[in-house]
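User: Teach me something about this protein's shape.
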Amino acid sequence: MRKIYLALAIAGVLAGCSSNSDKAPVNTTPVPAMGKVADGAFTRFALNGNSSGAWLVHAKPDLGLGAVEATNITASGDPGSLRLFYPSINETSTLQAGPGVSQIIPNIEPDTEYLLTVYYRDEKGDESPNVLELGVKDMGVGSLAGNIVRTKTFTNDDIDSDGDDTNDFRKVELAFNSGSNTTLEVYALTHLSSTENIDMNGDVALQTEVFIDDVVLKADD
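Assistant: First, the predicted structure itself:
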């Protein structure tokens, strides 16, 4: 009889353990997507009033290094894009230092071919003073302080006007290999090739503005 009671007691304990296990909380934390750009359409950036936890802003208008602001102009229909411009200019405005944005991308696949795509709008024609710089860096001590993985500059004349054109935005691409990196920083900046043809008595911001939207990073299969 005692053996029967003991067996029943053990069975009850095991049943209780099984029941508690069934009720254990499930971890629903989403796993970050592999090497994806967050808020690539700048929707949150626009809705949050010129701020986004995903993007790092590089702009120093007081030093002649331009400004960044969200706009309602869009390349894809999703609200938001970024306007990069110079409220005022000086000799530092031709430095490759901004304005623009960057984002740190984790979960990069090592030794993989990637394609960084940005939609770019510059309505000033072939004589535009703006130069677009797309780039990728490895992780340094601070933002944009890492080693260059790949970078390329584009004048307005360099960008194919016959290519993918959406709402006056044109697609610009940068291909690169991730090497041994598992985290990278991608960026899009603009600077001025020259300030000679800018009317200092006119609207400098209008004469130096460009727009970026729909930033995408994907493995290039």
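Now, about its shape. The CA atoms of residues 122 and 210 lie 5 Å apart. The mean pLDDT is 83. If you'd like, I can walk through any region in more detail.
User: That's plenty for now, thanks!
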